[in-house]
Amino acid sequence: MFKATHRIVALVVILTFVMMGAVQAQGKKVIYSSRQMGPDDIPTLDPAVAEDVPSIQVISQIFPELVRANELTSANEDGMATVSISDDGLVFTFNITPKVPWVRYDAASDSVVVVTDENGNPRYVTAADFAYGMMRSLDPALASYYGGVLSKWVAGAKEYNTAGEGADLEALKAAVGIKVVDDYTLEVTASKPSPIVESIFAMWMTVAQPQWVIEEFGDFWIEAENIVSYGPFAIKSWDRNAGGSLVMVKNPHFPGSNAIPQAKIDEVVFRFLDVEAQFTAYEAGELDVSEVPPSAIARIRSDAELSKQLHVDPGSGTYYYGFNVRIEPFNDPRAVLAFSLAIDREAITTNITGRGEIPAGFFSSPTLVAAPTSETHPDIAVSYNPEEAKALWEAYLADTGKKSSDFALNILHNNSSLHAAIAQAIQQMWKETLGVSVNITAQDFGTYLSTRRDADIFRAGWLYDYPDTNNFLFDVFHSSNDPDTGFNNAEFDALVEQAQVLSDTDARRELYAQAEKLLIRDAAAIAPIYYYVALNMTKPYVERTYSVIGREYYEKWDINR
């Protein structure tokens, strides 16, 4: 039961946020943001298992990568290391920045302190820490999704990552192409030459991880009182309840570099809020940065002051619906395509999202290298076509002897007023066009991530990890990644495998167009709905960059009142 004492505590928390936002916490530079957070707790801060935007946003700030993706251009830059590549494109040698200390937040002194070893000496981030992090991400016992992504690019890693019961794990582990040369030199041998490989080392599952802390605390090593890190920020606190917050504090011991400078902000407070609540808090002065709900767009654009605070950027991903192709009716591609063609994408982007989103004809975002688009391949792209949808569905029913009323289907989405509105609109479209009634279920983000592969239909979004079509088609739907939809198609696999190793962008685009045709039409498993745009509200006193890679680098931000 929700008791009165809880209301008092909640009121105190709210008032604290307001007061701190107004006076900037006794002279500290503090950013209050809900961007990319959502209303639920962040699922994890473990780089080896993270696979969602909120988790990766924070991880990128406390565990910088060997290679850093520039947030404005998406180009690769030196991160925690400089890199040299052998002439054959297979051996990557990383020279790691020396004497970057591991740190933790000390509540007693309200400061970030250097972590020491059993002899009292500072612990520095070494090549061994990066090697341990990668090998832990690859550990088959961890079953990390992104460990599986990494395994495809490091020599010997796939055999280790997919090892079954009875395998000689130590021998397989020793054969992985990750070698510690000395304290600050790491050598990684790729499984094949490709223009994609360097971008893999700009991803979170390749970062250094603190072996001694993980071994001491197990799954609890990421809690605020236990976690150690080395980036421009450290974790100060983490209220893991829905509606809670996570606080990052500046790490004064981080040396900084061109790509990853020392932070100017003293603290970043992430609040877990739905987009509607974010904007309400923003207008009340409780947030410095927020996302924009569709309901506020017209008012913002008609208000001279608010419109100056709005920033619109092309997004880095696609909003789509996945269908469980293991079950009826979706084990027949005609059914999936019928449900896809019955979705009026223009109505959704105009009447529900209303932020400038672009109806999606493909899964792959058009901003990616080698992506097919509705302009380059109009005959493959999907769009609203109720007549064709009806014909496909009726043909399916006739061939199977089924009726629309035979199916008790359900749409699953994570908690969000926007996702709910879209689901309700699509529910009505399917009822009107196909005569199919579906129910809708909403779950907190962590539960949704763990259960969506068992759903009939689920809402999903994919934002690129690196700006290449391989990250959409291979990394999500190649059968080796065990897609949540159950999609498994040998022809699709062969096409995206071939595209990986080509250097000719036009040739790669043609292969990806053929793969898309299988994914969205011929062996259909998904319905792409729209391409994201990034809308931000930012207070005038905040100096910031606007990222195109799906995560922000707060160490480059400042406050100038």
Structural commentary:
This protein is of the alpha+beta class. The protein folds into two domains: about 290 residues, D-Maltodextrin-Binding Protein, domain 2 (3-Layer(aba) Sandwich), CATH 3.40.190.10; about 220 residues, Dipeptide-binding Protein, Domain 3 (Dipeptide-binding Protein, domain 3), CATH 3.10.105.10. About 35% of the residues lie in helices and about 20% in strands. The strands form six sheets. Strands 13, 14, 15, 16, 17, 18 and 19 form a seven-stranded mixed sheet that branches. The chain has a four-stranded mixed sheet with strand order 1-12-11-10, sandwiched between helices. β10 and β11 form a beta hairpin. The longest helix is centred in the N-terminal third of the chain and has 24 residues. The protein is globular and about 75 Å long. The N terminus is likely disordered.
Average residue pLDDT: 92
- Class computed from helices, strands and strand pairing: alpha+beta
Rg of Cα set: 24 Å
Q: What overall form do the CA principal axes indicate?
A: globular
- Please report the first level of CATH classification, the CATH class of the largest domain: Alpha Beta
Largest sheet: 7 strands, mixed
Query: Helix coverage percent of residues?
Result: 25-40%
Number of strands: 21
Q: CATH homologous superfamily name of the largest domain? A: Periplasmic binding protein-like II
Number of helices: 19
Number of domains: 2
Q: Could you give the distance between the termini?
A: 43 Å
Q: Architecture of the largest domain, CATH level 2? A: 3-Layer(aba) Sandwich
Strand content: 15-25%
CATH topology of the largest domain: D-Maltodextrin-Binding Protein, domain 2
Spans of at least 5 consecutive residues with low confidence: 1-23
